[in-house]
Every structure is written in structure tokens, then in C-alpha cells.
Amino acid sequence: MSILGIGNKGSTKKVGNFIYEFVNQESFGGILLFIAAVLAVISANSPYLSEKYFALWHLEFGIYVGNLHFIKDMHFWVNDALMALFFLMVGLEVKRELLVGELSSFQKALSPIFASVGGMVVPIVIFLYCTWGSGGERGFAIPMGTDTAFALGILMLLGSRVPIKLKVFLVTLAIADDIGAILVIAVFYTKGISFFYLTLAVCMTLVLFLLNRLGVKTLTVYCLGGIILWYFFYKSGIHATISGIMLAFTIPIRSKISTTGFLDHLRLAVNVFYSNAPKQDSQQVLLNAKQNNALEIVAKAYDEVQSPLVRLEHYLHPLSAFLIMPVFALANAGVRIEKGFEFNEVFWGISLGLFIGKPLGIFVFTFVLDFFGISRKPSNLTWTQIFSVGLVASVGFTMSILISKLAYSDSGADQATLSVLLTSLVATIVSFVFFFIFSPKERVASSTAAVKEKI
Question: Residue 130: what are its φ and ψ, rounded to 5°?
């Protein structure tokens, strides 16, 4: 695609730098997410903070204008509104990867996609086996999710023991996992459907797609349409966060002007600026009108040469990493341990599904497809590293907790959330051990350096 300029050495280096920036930002977000989760558990069980903590998330606020009022508590705004922005970011990543990224090439995408399928199917089978007949089957999707921020945070802490190809494999796998989790939420965790509002949501989505086809590139238009789309999905009974995914696929990826057009604007602006500058710089205190017009040409061209999709994604990444995900953890990870914890069927379904099913499914599906030549694992990666990244992928914090809240009532959701937290903690420790034992620092460091040189 000409948007990213793929095809020459300089642009390839830019793509490589983008991957490094993405990994670093997401990984730091994982650390922040962990801190927020710990603070939530401490606050929920503190004799001094517990009541205030739970009262905070039940505070109500919203819109109240005349007869129009939309008042909800903090939990709703976090889980249904803020998470819609998170799903929007995920959708933008998915669309970009499908068009110009790792998922755009069938051969590149095949291995991590099938690995993610194994990482979803096997945990679900294990969960259903553990809970069948107990009444807890509704939470079958809890162990299928991978938390990208947490997972990349773990890989970052491991440093040069983890080659960049393994990080890209995990990111692609996690994106495919997110698609699966989103589809499951839309299909299986919808209470009652209002076909009137669902029709309105479909119509609104079609309008946004039409705007895309007509060449509208202004993000404000799509964001306003996205708010309306969110409301229609909420009223339809389908989880409102799905609107984020639908909106993402309507955002244009092509910029208003091409790279050549940008250079033409830039040359024009530079010529105007230069021809209207005084011979001696000391004679000019302020820019004249024609120089200011030249700068406006540059500013406008700068906005128009950028892909609206990539621009919005860059806006949302820090918002997601430093606000949405930590707030989600604060709101949902706080469970009272004093209520007691049951090692029941749901606990074993979640724990074994995440800790055993996830790495086993990823490893087995990747190995079988590689063995039969259907797809190949990334070169220079060992099978031990594939299994180790499967352990990292078993940290299923965000999606798992969200599905826990959708699947069970308050007490059941607390038990499921605590199961997710305990299992994710164990998976983190074990994955560290695996990488330290089976992925020597010196050997991987040289491999990573070689990859950096190529990109």
C-alpha cells in the first residue's frame, strides 16, 4: 500500500520502528494495568477503603437535558463506554493488520491465526468438561482471551531473551483472539434483542460506510456517528462495546492526498515562504501574511497526507494504555477475598482452561499445521519459545474479566474474576521461569540485533 510506503528500505525501517513503538507502549501499559489490579484488590479488602471503593463505582452520572436523561453508574460507563473505545482501538488494529500488516499476507497470518484458534478452542473444551452439569457452563468463553497489554509487559521485562519475531507472533495471535472474543460476546452474551434498534444500528453503520466510500476523511464526522451507533447498539440489547469494532471498520485508511501530492504542497509552501522572506533574517520580527499562508499549506498537507485510521489509532493507543485499561482494572479487579473462595467447577474450568488449555492449544495447533506443511512457524523461533509464548498468552485479564461480568451474577462474577487473577499470576511466574531456562539471553540478543539491522 502506498500509504505506508512499503517497498523500499526507508519505509521498511519506519514499519519496524512502528512495531517497536507499539510493543514498548503496550508493554508499559501492561505494567500499569498490573499496578491498577493490585490497587483494586487492596482497596476492596481494606477495612478503611472498602466501602469507599465500592461506593465510587456505584456513583451515578450522565446526561439530563429536559425530558432526555441517560443516567448510569460508574461501572456502566467504564465497562460499556470506555471499553467501547478500547474495542475501537482493537478494531483499528485489526483493519490495519488485514490491509497492510501481518494479517494481509495469507502465509504470514496463517500460523498465528491457527495458533489463536487452538488457544481458544482447547480452553473452551476444558472449561466445558470441568463445568458440565454444574450450572457454570455460561462462562465457557472466560479462558479464551489473551490480554495483549499484560502479555507484552511480560515480554518487555524479559528483554533480549525474547526476539522481535516472537513479539510480532504474540501481537498477531492476540488480535485474532480479540476478534474471536468479540464475536462470542456479540452472539452468546446478549440478553434480549430489540430488532428496531438493531436495524437502526445497521443503518447507521451503512451510513458510515457510505461516507467512507464518498471520500469523507474527517474523523469528527465518524466519531459523532460512532456515538449514535453506540447508543443504538446499547438499546438493541447487544453489548454496546461491539459498536467500537463496527465503527473501526468504517474509518478510512487512505489519506486525502498521496505522498506525491504532499511533496507538491510542500515544495509550493517552501517556495512561497522563501520568496517572501527578507534577505537578512534580523530584519524580520514577525512572519508576513504570505509566509503564514505557506505554513498553513504545510499544516493542511500534513493532516491530509496521514491515514485517518492510523491517526485515530495513534490517538487511542496512549488513551487506552494509560487510562482506559487501568481504570477498567480498578473498576473490575476489586473482589472481596474475605467472602471466601471456592475451588469449584468454575475455578478449575478457568484455571485449567487458561493455564493448560491456552499454551497447549497454541502449541499443538502450530505444531500440527507445521508438520503437515499447511503453515510454517516463524523462522528462528524454537518450539520451546512457541510453548513459552503460549504460557504468556494464558494471561487473560481484560477479556476474561469482562466476560465474567457478562456471564455471572455478582457473587459468581467475583469468584470468576478471582480465578482469572490467580491463574494469570501463576502463568506470569511460570512463563518467566520458562524463558529464563529455555531462552538464553546471549543467543537471542544476537538474533534480535540481526533482525534490527534488517529493518
Answer: -75, -30
